[in-house]
Amino acid sequence: MKFESLRIAGLRCLEGVSITPAPGISVFTGANGAGKTSILEAAYLLSHGRSFRAGSRDVLLKRGAATLSVFAEVRSAEGRTRRLGLGRESGRWQARVDGDAVSLGGLVQECAVVCFEPGSHDLIAGPSDERRRFLDWGLFHVEHAFVNQWRRYQRALKQRNALLRAGPPLDPSLMEPWESELASTGEALSAFRVGYVERLLPHIQGFMGNVLPELGEFTLRYKQGWDEASSLADTLLERRGRDLGRGHTTAGPHRADFTIAFEHAPLREHLSRGQEKLCALACLLGQASLHAEMCGEWPVVCLDDLASELDRTHQEWVVAQLMGRDVQVLVTGTEVPHALSGQSVDVFHVEQGVVTALL
User: Fold this and answer.
1) E strands in the chain
2) Could you tell me the CATH number of the domain that includes residue 313?
3) Are the C-beta atoms of residues 288 and 301 closer than 8 Å to each other?
4) Binding annotation for ATP
5) Looking at the 3D structure of the chain, how many domains does it have?
6) How far apart (Å, rounded) are the C-alpha atoms in residues 133 and 81?
């Protein structure tokens, strides 16, 4: 997938921005705070329905603006072009594909973007919801049946939690249908994730051996969110009293996680911050590579503040990995990164929210 055009209005400091990215590598340069990262953020919004930056969705709006909008034309490897749009007004998101209103999930399935940015180490060191989103985003694109199961599970989880919050006395006849739905869809979600991890791991290992060879063999283990010796149905029944006291469901795929380990660093805490970043980079590239294998095309790859996040050796390695593939890459930096010197790239200058293409 590649962006043929990208139009942004009302997003942070960007207003009336129109960009035609190169099919290969586009570099956005400018001073800190000029709006470079917000360009990548716009592309990411279309693909994930949320920002990769911390903070509420309301802070995405440009100061004084009532709405924000991101529009794009994207072209698939088969040559099909789709028009995508995402807007926010009065606290509500509106998504469109080819002019038709769709859900955020429907939009996400049409746009694939992975992003390595200063907060990417949270994939390794952050809370478990980051890792669940990582797996589920990949599954949204390669397993269409996953989407329906995920939606059914979320609905059942919401209903069970509402009954738990209502407090005692708890009517089993009201709880049992939702627990049955949770159990069936939850087991299905877990099976999808396990299968995805099995396909994903070799791709990550291929990149990990290059970025962190000193740590030895890399492994990733999925933890389903309840005792593997029990079924989810039995676990929900057994925990019903405990969950009633807590007011929420404490077992299920919404509590899942995955753990990483290296031969010479068996615990995540053994990694430095720099190693966490390189580990996250290998995971993101591995996911992009699996997406290409299963979908027939690479997602767009965004590299935010590349020169600051990676040393020169790893900058050159990332560029070498991407240059030989049919992939669109969006890069930001205060200047063109050294690793891209002499390469065929399109350069854009960003200043106070204004984007100018440079010859």
Assistant:
1) 2-9, 17-19, 25-29, 67-75, 81-89, 92-97, 100-102, 113-116, 218-223, 257-262, 300-303, 329-333, 345-351, 354-358
2) 3.40.50.300
3) yes
4) 30-37
5) 2
6) 27
Considering the domain architecture, whether residues 197 and 274 belong to the same structural domain is answered as yes
Q: What angle do CA 217, 329, 141 make, to 5 degrees?
A: 70
Alpha carbon of 198 to those of 60, 145, 179, 194: distances in Å? 36, 18, 28, 6
Residue 348 belongs to what domain range?
A: 1-112+299-359
Beta partners for residue 356, in sequence order? 349
Spatial neighbors of 67 by CB under 8 A, at least 6 apart, are 9, 10, 61, 87, 88, 89
Q: Helix count (H) and strand count (E) of the chain? A: 11, 14
* Residue 232 and residue 106 share a domain: no
Q: What is the pLDDT of residues 275-293, one digit of tens each?
A: 999 999 999 999 999 999 9
pLDDT digits (tens, 9 = 90+) for 168-221: 888 999 999 999 999 999 999 999 999 999 999 999 999 999 999 999 999 999
CATH number at residue 179: 1.20.1050.90
pLDDT at 359: 64
Average of per-residue pLDDT across 140-162? 95
Which parts are annotated binding residues? 30-37
Distance CA 264, CA 215 (A): 5
Same domain assignment for residues 18 and 130: no
Are residues 124 and 36 part of one domain? no
- Give the end of a domain, one of 274, 294, 314: 294
Q: Which of residues 263, 294, 325 is at a domain's end?
A: 294
Q: Are residues 317 and 284 in the same domain?
A: no
Q: What predicted TM-score, i.e. pTM, was given to this entire model?
A: 0.94
Given 3-state DSSP classes, what are the helix, strand and coil percentages for the chain, each rounded to the nearest 5?
Answer: 45, 25, 30
* Beta carbons of 35 and 340 less than 8 angstroms apart: no
Q: Please check whether residues 176 and 93 belong to one and the same domain.
A: no
